[in-house]
Amino acid sequence: MTKNTIWVDADACPNTIKETLFRAAERKMIPLILVANQFIKVPPSSVIKTVRVGAGFDVADNYIADNVVEGDLVVTADIPLAAQVIENKGLAINPRGELYTPDSIKQRLTMRNFMEELRSAGIQTGGPNTFSAADKHAFAAQLDKWLCKQA
């Protein structure tokens, strides 16, 4: 049985989350692939790889969506990518530890589209909260749940 892969939408992924993923991939010998349109430094490893894609809107997202298979885990804050992953029977979590489900992703897509409309109308909507230690712990807990199922 081949192990599932962890895919990372790496351009915007916090370094602390990448470091958590590096340790987990090495410890469990799980393939980890970071996809970005810029150079990403990774430790030397037989299970950790990078894929550098061309510049452009959604190029990294499209690469991940085209390559994810059932049971793979994708780390992304990108709601449309998470929706594609779920459609492909993968699992998606954001760097703050939120597990996207078929039900929650529909709600998140609706909210994302609404906020985009507000921004297009010139309304200031603010940005995400600062990444916190609680976010890191929530991510690690979700990652551990997925890793336990890989044994």
Characterize the structure shown.
The protein is of the alpha/beta class and 151 residues long. It has five helices and six strands. The chain has a six-stranded mixed beta sheet with strand order 3-2-1-4-5-6, sandwiched between helices. Helix 1 runs parallel beside helix 5. It is globular, with a radius of gyration of 15 Å. The termini are close together.
The largest sheet has its strands arranged as 3-2-1-4-5-6
- Counting copies of identical and different chains, the oligomeric state is single chain
Taking the alpha carbons of the first and last residues, their distance comes to: 11 Å
The shape, in one word, is: globular
Order of helices and strands: EHEEHEHEEHH
The profile of the biggest β sheet is:
6 strands, mixed
Structural class: alpha/beta
| Alpha carbon gyration radius | 15 Å
Helicity level, as a percent range? 40-55%
Low-confidence stretches: none
Number of DSSP helical runs? 5
Mean pLDDT: 89
SSE order and pairing:
Elements: E1 6-9, H1 15-28, E2 32-36, E3 48-52, H2 59-67, E4 73-75, H3 79-87, E5 91-93, E6 99-100, H4 102-120, H5 133-148
Parallel strand pairs: 1-2, 1-4, 2-3, 4-5
Antiparallel strand pairs: 5-6
Helix pairs in contact: 1-5, 3-4
Briefly say what this structure is:
It is built from five helices and six strands; from the N terminus they run βαββαβαββαα. The longest helix has 19 residues.
